[in-house]
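Morning run. Coffee first, then this:
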Amino acid sequence: MAAASILFYMLLATINTAHRQHHPIRRTMISSSGNTMNKSSSSNANDDGVIIGPDLNPTRSKMDKKLYRHITLSNGLKCVLICDTVAMRQRKLDGYYESDDDEDEEGGNEDVEDDEDEEGGNHGDEGSDKEGEEEEEEEEDDDDGLRKAATALLVNVGSYHDPPHLQGLAHYLEHMLFLGTQSFPTENAYDSFLSQQGGDDNAYTDMEHTLYHYCIPQDGSSGEKNVWKALEMFASFFICPLLGGDSAERELNAVESEFELNKKDDDCRWSQLMSYTCGMDENAPIMGRDYLTEKKEEDKEEDKEEEEGSKSQKKPFHPFAKFPWGDMNSLRTEPEAKGIDVMKDLRDFYHTHYYARNMRLVVMAGYELDEIQRRVVQHFQDVPANPRVLCNNVPTITSSESSGTITNLHPYKLPFHPSSLTKLYRIIPVRHHHTLTLTWQIPSTCSHWRTKPTDYLAHLLGHEAAGSILSVLKERGWAMSLAAGTGEDGLGDASTHALFGLQISLSKRGMRYWEDVVKIVFAYIGMLKFNFVEGHYLLDEKNGEKQKKVEGLAPWIYDELKSIAELSYRYADEGDVTDIVEEIAENMAPWYNLPEDRVLDGDALLFDDAVDNDSVKSLLFDYLTPENMRVDLMSSLFGRDADFGDPNLEGEEEKKEEPEDGHCAIQPMDVDDDNVEENGSDDDGKDPLLFDKEKETVEPRFGTKFWVEQISKDTIQQWTDSAKPHLPSSELAIDLPPKNSYVPKKFDIKKLPADDGEHPLLNCSVKVCVNVGRKKSWFPAAVTKYKTQKNAHRLSLSYEDEGEKWHVLDSPEAYSKYEGDEESIEAGHEGSLDGGKVKFRVTAVPREGEGIVFSYGDAGHDDDVEDGAAFPPIPPPTPESRLPHLIYDKKSVKVWHLQDRKFKRPLADLRMNVECEGMNDSSLNQACMALFCRLCADALTETCYLASVCELGSSLYPTDNGFSIRVHGFDDNLLALAKEVLNVVMSFRGRDDEDDLPTTIKDGRFDACLEVHLRKYSNAGMDASSFSTSLRLLCLRPSLKSSFSKAKALQGIAVSKFVQVISKLLKRVSVDAFYHGNVDRKDADEAANMISAALTCHHVGLPKKKIPPKLVIKTKHAIDHHQIVAPSIDPKDPNTAVEVYFQFGKDDNSSNAIQQRVLTDLLEHILEEPLYNQIRTKEQFGYEVSCGARWTYGVLGMSFRVVTSCKSADEASSRIEDFLKSFRSDLESMDNETFMEHLVGLAKNKLESFDSMEEETSSHWSEITEGRNDFEAYRKEVLCLRSLSKQQLIAAYDEWLHPLCKKGKPKKRRRMVLHVIGSGDGPASLGRPLIENKKAVGDEIDRLVQLFHSSVKHESWGRVTFGSPDLHRANTV
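And here it is:
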């Protein structure tokens, strides 16, 4: 885990709502072309009352070509408008060919189509799961990467603003806004419209703001303007929502279901526990005090002393103490008991906070800025400027307050009352882990955006290199990982406060020494204080001589961080459109306090030449102290949540499971790592279980059990002494981070091959005009290659019939102005070829990440689909030189290479997949391989952390047949890091006669890694949703071994046995590698030689035919389905997960298989929204309802999932079946226009471009690892999609999904139903298998899997072999 860069509070407060599963201002006017025109302050308002804000374009990253405009509407709504320049240029094609009427009889009156062609997209691949049985399978999202239009609106109100009597109200309101408006009253009109067009939407509620967003494909140059229709529907949320009716009760159920899904999340439980115990909820429930009642005189004196000496504010209430999630109790039961009208308060809350001056809007589209502005004014001018309802305690943001930072939170400061500090909170977790968290409350960091002092300190306290806190703790065997910093959410960073945290994952041994762990942390803080006071000399800029000495740490630390931040920002990927608008909207949040001219870069860069030393000093000396700290120790040594009865059962005595050995229930529960030997005797340290277990307390919302005790004065004094400014003793090897050798220095873009070079016209779509007799004819084409030959500049054009022809470019010198970043070719550019014989016009220009684009130049050209609707133009095949090609093939080592020419950044990505002989033989082999990966990663921590700080990442993880390595980031130093990784990994080879670990692994790390790994296995499948997926994959993939069997195999394993297993597995290996990015052939050859050399003389190749095939079990083709029923792993999980899986057939990449693949995707595209709307929204079966296409090692299928806490498993699976039965008529009655919208929407998604080089690398890498090597499979799929009819779709639906045959009787299908049944009080627990001994659950799961395999007689689909696309070889070694 990276430390300084990981914000460990980040996920704790954000409540996501899945609707389908941050000097005076200089006023400027930005023209639609991006030019700026200075305006005087007296003339910066337009006729419509719009005020133009600061020019944001100078603050864009170097690679960002979008245009920005900051405006304020007449009602006070502040907006950032973003012009997607590439999409805008393509829209300018309208009418280009009309100017040729006089000279071109056949070319006139052609409407040019807005070209949405985007390449990329790859089928979801279950076969690439790292550990499929343990990891939750991601739902496919076909929209990722498509350059769509997007909008985000932030409302400056969140959970901190909830009324005390209606906690969770802001979250509930967020849900309600999606359920219809007066303008669009149909409940799912908005969601349905977006889904049908291929769009997506979502929202979340944070502590101080609520954010809504959506994305939708760009409009074509003709037809409906869906971008503006979506904007109109979205705007109505904030003008005239319905906020009532039958949907209110149903959506409250959805809030409850969402809470139930997260109720067993340890991070969520801990964050709510902090809120409950902060002592600022007006009665401080566990502190033994009631601040609203009369106190004893001594208590009053103590309070007075505490409050005078503390930096905590005096008012005994803070919104931090609230319950932000909301559930049925807080939003119905409790308020109804008090006679509160919830819906009236909800509408009042909306009318109080949802007004224009309290909102921030970001709109990004492929239109000119003037047009975007016009539409924003049109649709948002009716949002009320001020609250519809005024509340006495809620000040409004007025027009004179340009920043709008006033909220009703301004009286509140720090959230922890002194009585809650210097306390130890022992907490019962749900999962097996030992986590120590130190939390200091500090003033809000919002005003320190220029130098970010908390990030500076997080870097120092959280670094993982030699001399770090983590390095010292690992040396003692006390810890595995560490993270430091404040969070980006409202709990960790708010307008009222910030929480600076340091979270450490302890070992069992570390639990005995937790006080010493804290002492080491304060010793490090003491070392920082000493170095700060000792200071440094300022250097003369001219001669470098020392001048006066000043306080502060060495300047190079800040300079290094500033340099890395600038590099990261300069070369940042364009990113997903939703992420773009969300991030800007968050940066605009009034509470976040960024200046308006810094909403693009203010959160990413460091602006001053030196860190704010006054702030750093204050944090170190005044706030990071033992007296200002709370200590949370969450550990399964105290027991796990499942070991206790439900504390909320009224009138029943709480039940505790009696351990087998008869001891007290509060005892070590980590049975997974009991056999791991600890360094040192049992007499070392303090027993973490020696405390008063009778004073147990329960947090009422999540039911989290905990104990609280005052930390002794002696311990506090020891920590205080350690925190004094001093250098540590030689025994405590802590120090400042070393200077980072991985800071990149080279950023040049490598030259492309001479025979396939770079040119501004490359990849553009053109229309070529040639004389045919006495007439001129226009032909669509794409520029695919460029080279210079015999002093001639030549372009290769690919025509619609896929014919290729070389042409000589006339006036090549005219294109030199386009070679820099200042200007670029635009649609409509004209030129000539072959000495003027051939004219051409550019009709489409690729955006960043896009390959060859193709546009017919007229919107109605392609009528291959049923109703003549325009189908997205399909680009010609990519030249072989632009696809991965094999450069090394020797001794079962293959290295592929592709030089980037799309993103043009100094980045690269090296991936390696190592397949080992015997991986499928046993659970022991697979478990040892996973432990091997953890050991190597642990050994590389110090090196890889330094690299990660410089945006050079690395990962090492097990696969079904071996392991994979990835190194990625700036190409400078990438191979140096890769070599370090390979040296550690390969140090295990050739140790057949050795019993000890190689010297690359430090003493004691084997036991530490084994402990953590066993703990990981014990936590696998703890939530019902992910467990149902794991169970399905275990059934389908016989090579997979369950976490239960692997944990058994590792119990008590000796080092010698482990070394023996790994040495054998590494004896014969096969390696596939792919090097992609700003790397030329010379770099690729260097990488290939490095990999070959790393394999050492011990290398013996493993031929592909010797690698066991990745078999997939064939489900039974029958009327009756195979049903697998299992209990949830967590016996207190109230959620039941149902997954219905349909298997379609083998995908061997033949033409028939491609059609099946496309039909599968089309079914998902059509079914997803109505399934969600019916079963989740209308019938409220549960918060999680979804369906998705599945591609499992070459076998196609589809999965339907419902996770519920209010319905039985039988009800859920039956409801899926009934839905499939009834939806047949919906398919039959679907009109051609709707069918074609789905067809065209899916085609656009498949032609999507990549948002980053990482996405492109992943797409190509999956083709290589699966052995298909079809790098342009998307073209085949879209070509197939273009010819599909509705009848073919219905036929596929009937064959694969529909329960009935034509005669109305049940028919055979390949179907498997999985029920993972929870243990709630309602119907969701019906049918839960009773297993007396919880240790036997693993055995039962393995038994169920074996039973399934036996029931189908272990029949599989066999080895899936793909068609053989030509291997792209380039002088293979």
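The longest strand covers residues 775-789. Good start to the day.
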